[in-house]
Design a protein that fits this description.
Layout (H helix, E strand, L loop, with lengths): L2 H4 L3 E4 L5 E4 L2 E5 L4 E9 L4 H4 L3 E6 L3 E4 L3 E4 L7 H20 L5
Parallel strand pairs: 1-7
Antiparallel strand pairs: 1-2, 3-4, 4-5, 6-7
């Protein structure tokens, strides 16, 4: 299957039946040669008009089935790229505080 074939499929969450969008990107593990996650743009009603929004990161392990027209995923919680960046920033600040011997975050 080609990446371009992937990008034409709708991504559906089987937990609530919602259409999440179409795949815009993939996260790859180049060392092991496998797909780690699919990326789906997430646009709210207002952010979509003004170019905002963040991307949904869906781990490969959450893909239930890849059909001819859709990709079915099981997502209890939706993680966005913005959430990931905020979590990484918090972890970094916490680790720095731990190295200094105190926590100020």
């Amino acid at each position: 299957m080609k990446i371009s074939d992937f990008q034409t499929k709708d991504v559906i969450n089987i937990v609530d039946g919602k259409r999440l969008g179409q795949i815009s990107d993939l996260e790859l593990d180049l060392r092991q040669g496998r797909i780690e996650a699919i990326v789906v743009p997430s646009y709210s009603k207002f952010r979509g008009l003004f170019g905002g929004g963040s991307d949904l990161i869906i781990p490969w392990s959450n893909i239930v089935k890849i059909g001819s027209d859709v990709v079915l995923v099981k997502m209890e919680e939706l993680r966005t790229l913005q959430d990931e960046k905020e979590a990484a920033s918090y972890r970094e600040r916490t680790e720095q505080a731990d190295r200094r011997g105190y926590r100020d975050v």
